[in-house]
Every structure is written in structure tokens, then in C-alpha cells.
Amino acid sequence: MTHAPTEPGTSSGSRHEPADAPAGPPPPRRRRRRVARWIAGCAVVLITAAGATGYWLYRDLDSNIKGVDLDKAIGDDRPPRLPTSGQNLLVLGSDSRAGANAALGTGHVSGARSDTALVVHIPEGRERAVAVSIPRDTLVTRPECTGRDGTKLAGAKRVMFNSVYSLAGPACVVKTVEQMSGVRMDHFMEIDFAGFKDLVDAIGGVTVTVGQDIHDTSSGLDITAGTHRLNGTQALQFVRTRHGIGDGSDLGRIGLQQKFLMALLTEIKHQDLLGSPAKAYTIADELTASLTTDSGLASLTKLAEFGRSVNGIDPAGMETIMLPVRYDTQDPNRVVAAQPRADQLWRALRKDETIPASARKSPARGGRTP
User: Fold this and answer.
1) Contact by Cβ (8 Å): 288, 191
2) I need a surface site. Which of 47, 108, 208, 313 has the fewest CB within 10 A?
3) DSSP structure class, residue 235
4) Cα(48)–Cα(52) distance, rounded to whole angstroms?
5) Which of 332, 273, 68, 54 is CA-nearest to residue 187?
6) pLDDT tens digit string along 320-340?
7) What pLDDT digit, counting tens, does each position of 124-143 carry?
8) Cα 166 from Cα 194, distance rounded (Å)
């Protein structure tokens, strides 16, 4: 260790005291210098450690995110981008029966499905948004895609919307939505059921209010009318419930999913994440581990940039709409897009315009309450 230089006119044995006198505390200036050097040394160590830890945490979270190159998977046959700075995001909730999802009461169907599909339209200005739910039982025309096994999957008419995901994955769902709507999806995000449960638990639960008792033996949800703080397992039951509300169809479930989405976004916005870095990391870890996005969002940096761009949206002002559908004449257990309302809705999103009142109502409601 390098010693501080001695004061002028002094030596290791001061001429003002006997050489064999016991050494007392160093003079104040020398003591201050030693303390300053000690503090500076500690600061260097802490900064170095924090930098290494921060980089490790960043790499850990960044590597969690799975990305899909939509342009490569879909090709050039896509609708044009919005003429404004508005954006469209497809959000999928997948219910794979494999891995951690197998223990979450997702049923016994093999493979995976996409039980939740939302087209989130963020108009120019980034101060509001609208989420359009596409019922999973909607009959659609599936375009030609590459199947999950890598082989070419021929296009087909009158297939259930949620079967597209199980046969060909998220890129084909994006392609299907784009072709049925004429709306280009700028981004997509997919979160699986296990990750959804862990995310809700990580933020400490979500508060919802329901106007009726809900008892669904299929999903396991059993709550009374009123306000409830749902943990991850209960939240998963809540968004999967269909038999305990309305006519038992998927249309009734959409109402619960939209209600929970608004409650979840409100909860996240109210969380003091900056005041609790450890909690912020836990939430980010749970979210990114279960997240698949397009390649344009598949990094922490890109996700953060997108998050900042929409930070001004108030969840309380976010509008939720169900794609206007009617019951299919050949199969009453399925629905099809109700025209001209569905086209009016998609046209408004393509032009970044206000959605007409007529396009906000669906002939088939499944007995759900507003």
C-alpha cells in the first residue's frame, strides 16, 4: 500500500516528540486522505461489481425472449403499413398442454391452441388504444403456410381460428389475421399459460370486480359477485372460464378476458417498479421467459423502446371490442364474421380512423353482459 507523503518539515520520527514515543492518531489531513482513498477504492469495486452483475442480468433476461422473423416466415404478400405512425400488435395467449402448462388444468387436448387473440390498435399519438378480440371458434380461411413440421400446409376454408396456431404456429396466425382483415400486424407477442400465471403472482395479484357469482367446474373458478384479488392460478381460471358465464360459449369468456386485461394493465402501471429493482427483475424474468415476439421486439432494448412509445396510454381509456360475429348457419357451435360490420371495423383500423358505432356491436354475444 502506498503511504501518503509526509508533511513538510516532518519525518517518521517527529522532532517535536521523542522517537520512541507511541504513535498517536495521524494528523487530521492525513486521516482524511486515507479515508478518501478507502472510499474511492470501495466505490471502484462496487461500480465494477454492479456493472458485471447488470450485464449478467441483462444477458439473462435478453436470452429469455424467443423471436420469430415474420417477414421471412410470411414473405412479401402482406398488407401495407399504416399511413400514419399508428401501429397494430397481435397478442396471443397459448395453451400448450406440454411442460409446466400440463399442471394448470388446461385440459387433455394434445398439442397447443391459442385461446386468446387480440388485435391491439394503437392510433397515432399513442394516447389511447383499442383491443379487438377474435373468438377462437370463428371459422376463417387459412392461407397457405409452413406447418410446424416444416412441410407446406395448404390453404383451407372454414377452419377454426384457434386451430391455425396448433397446425402452423404464430407466424401463420399473423398471416391469417392479416388476410382476413387487410390490417398489417407491425408486431406480435405470445405468452403461454404457465408464464401468465407466474407473471400475475410476481406482481402480487390482480384485482377484478364481477357482477355475478361464477362457478365453473371446468376451469376451477369459484367466486362470488363482488371484488376479488386473484392470484396467478385464479387469474388463469378467470380468463379460461366459459361454462360459468353467459351461454357457456367462447363469446362469454371473451368478456372476462377483456375485463382481466384492463385490470392487469392498470395493476402493472400502478406498480412502483423503480422503487423496487428486485421486484422489477422478478417480473421481467417471469415475463420474458414465457414470451415469444417478432424479431423486431425480441430484445430487452427493443421491448423497452416499444414500452416507452406507448407509456402514455391510460389503461382506463383503453377500449375493448369483440370482432362482430354471427352464429354459423351450418354449425351453431361456430361463428363467422358478421358483415358489413367486420369490414367496417377493419377498415377503421387500416385507416387509423374512429371505429363506427355499428362495428362495435356483435349480433352473436353468447349471452355475455357488457
Assistant:
1) no
2) 108
3) H
4) 6
5) 68
6) 999 999 999 999 889 999 999
7) 888 889 999 999 999 999 99
8) 17
